Amino acid sequence: MALAGVDLSLRRSEVHALCGENGAGKSTLLKILAGCHPHGSYGGELMGESGPLKMHSPADADAAGIALVAQELALVPELSIFENMFLGRELSRFGLLRKPEMQRRCELALQRVGLDERPETIVSSLSVGRQQLVEIAKALDKEARVLILDEPTAALTASDAERLNALVRTLVDQGVGCLYVSHRLEEVFSISDTITVLRDGKTVKTGPASGWNRASVVEAMVGRALAEDAMHAPAPMKGTAAPALAVEHWSLTHPSIPGRFAVEDLGFELHPGEILGVAGLMGSGRTALLTSLFGAARSRITGRLRRGDGEWRDPFHDPREAMAAGLALVSEDRKGQGLVLNASLNENIALATLTEYQRRGFLDWAALRKRAASIAASLQVKAANLEVEAGSLSGGNQQKIVLAKWLETGPSILLLDEPTRGIDVGSKAEIHALIRDLAAKGMSVLVASSDLSELLGLSHRLMVMSAGRQTALLERDQFSQVAVMHAATAG
User: Fold this and answer.
1) pTM greater than the 0.70 cutoff
2) I need a labelling partner for 372 at 20 to 30 A (CA). Which of 84, 161, 344, 447 fits?
3) Which of 315, 263, 252, 300 is nearest to 469 (CA)?
4) Is the pLDDT of residue 229 over 80?
């Protein structure tokens, strides 16, 4: 049972934070509130200000003044921002679309979330973080009285998250009630008035935010105390071996803006056993750097790289060439680029290594399943069995499957883009421990993240980017949020 007697109330002018591990029942509850699970498919009762709510569709939720900004993007990539914003509720007169009016309202909504894009911009040209802001702007245009935000800042940098949360507080001061779901506990404490924790589909505890602390929330979520050093243990110092990867004069032309660079004249070294963090604001070039190193960029790359003691060479032409050189990339969009959601866990784990299981034109399923079971167990994947579809798992377990797929290739250099975005505290601690263990065994890790506390806790060194350029390379004794943010805004 996904939910078992959950009690929750939301008042006007309140931010009510909902916390819990993946699988605790948060998503199911939000879907009920948003009309995705129709009245009659669940037990219990929903009450609005004017009485019981019997919603049969998301349209009923809209009519009731309830807007959900889901963690998973619900945008049509091929359409423009304003077309997405009014999809299904287009403004028309005499059978003709009122495009100027839709564009005007879209522009106002984008300004409210601080997104400097034109309404006519095609959504597929935007980063994941900017697409998330489009989703939030779309909800704001509906003038909802109840705003449900599911991991709204998961893809945002610290400064963008602060701007969004300031906007949330403004809306709340105007009488909106906000149900706020986030795994970032620092954020929960900074914005919420009330906190409710779910575990195993049940309400564990509800109370004023002032009555909670980080340890009590984590313990309520996981049912046990989770040592702080497991989540924020300092990384050991790196070794002194020759670089596993060296990059010089690395540049990547912007895929959609002529004359601009997504990455410009960047150089660095990554050593065996080192975790090198990449920090920067949205649009700084973090994702562009990782995808271009892996040969997966959509535009022209210049510069050169060297693996170990080998010769300097041109950029990899495609991911296959990068994989042959010992690189693996865990992308920021695990559902769109990391997994086949309707395929089994066995199939997903073997995706990058299928040729190893070919026997005379057929797959050796017995060997594949045996190996998949071994690595899934080593990563503590929680699933009924490995034949279930990847889309049925929680975010944390999906991320472990993506990691398992790439670790199966035997990489010596692991590129991680937002490795813990949108996963719960317990899974995050497990993935952090895995990253440290891989580095301790000699693997080189380049990790980009919008979670600055994650980078400060994991990295041996920290490279900061701004507007595609490297603006700082900090040793561990130089780490501080102030130093990082100063460098991140230098461009």
Assistant:
1) no
2) 447
3) 263
4) no
